[in-house]
Amino acid sequence: MRILIAEDDTRLLKSLVHIFELNHYAVDGVDNGNDAFDFAFSDEYDGLVLDIMMPGMDGVTVLKKLRANGITTPALFLTARTEIDQRIEGLDAGADDYLPKPFSTGELLARVRAMLRRKDNFTPDLLTFGTLSLNCSTYELVYDGRTQALSGKEFQVMEMLMRSPSIIVTAEQLITHIWGWDTDVDTSVVYVHVSNIRKKLDQIGVPLTIKFVRNAGYLLEAKQ
Questions:
Q1: Is the domain 126-222 a CATH 1.10.10.10 member?
Q2: Cα distances (Å, whole numbers) of residue 85 to 56, 57, 60, 106
Q3: Which CATH code for domain 2-118?
Q4: pTM
Q5: Which residues of 35-45 are buried (b: 16+ CB within 10 A; e: fewer)?
């Protein structure tokens, strides 16, 4: 999946590019409307994530021009909560969805998956790691015919670990992914959720655990 992100806040743009790359998307990032139009006009993207208020050309104008030129790539707008008129105008211009700021990473990714699903190009609803499966629709762990429900935050932790098999995921990456780039949540909260997931893995007999690697992060691996 190839995504174009247009966001004029350079710090947020960098975070968004990192988040999507971590979730196995190919990503291009631009910080103004003119570049957003030029990149998107290539029609090489599966989805667009556009900020409304950008220099050069606002996001709504970008999308209107793209639609006028026959570019039908699905688009999601990032908006300030006060931009109600622009949201309506954006949807009328052909946007598939909008997401008010501030937003959680989990909700952003879910909305993008839904947007891509409507294009008949979407990430699988079932992730697997060895003999364990994670149902992304029901938020359930599935192993040997047994299921275990996860909370929303537990699901997002497990999803990130299963999308990065055998790769250490830092607590900071988990925090950004789940609570957003500007949260004040600390690493102790991540530890609590990881501990709860470990217990649920044990409850259905999964021969896997989430290992903590000191000064590095977390890793999903087979039990020793």
A1: yes
A2: 20, 17, 11, 26
A3: 3.40.50.2300
A4: 0.55
A5: bbbebbeeeeb
